[in-house]
Amino acid sequence: MIEAVIFDLDGTLANTAMLHKKAWEIALKEMGEKPSFDITVLLGRKTLDIAKILVGEDKAETLASIKTDVYNTLVKEEAKPTECAREVVEGFKRSGTKVSVVTSSKRVSAEKVLDIISISPHFLVTNDDVEKGKPHPEPVIKALKSLGVSLI
After folding, report:
1. What is the pTM of this model?
2. What are phi and psi of 36, to 5 degrees?
């Protein structure tokens, strides 16, 4: 038996990775900025970290705020589970496997998406729960410990 599984949220359980990209593009346009590369390479990091890369320290908080507002609107209108996401998660839970979701999203956003797509993990680790976000291993280690899985 598998003791525990960890899923990413955006782009894995929900179609929201591309909603993040769309929100960044709209927010940048609103600020009169244009990225010099494909934003997709930054997805999965903390919002403020992405904003700093895109527009620098001075404008980062403003961009992050606009992006968050745009994303929250998009989620309400467009978020959906990815194909078979619910069935896979529920299958693991029925078999006794502990399920965690680890995401770079803020807790309020992640909980909203999980509610919209009707997925309830045993444990959720968000950007708000860690000092160092993905791709650093801290969020995954926190999830494993919370699920009671030994780290060998």
Report:
1. 0.84
2. -95, 10
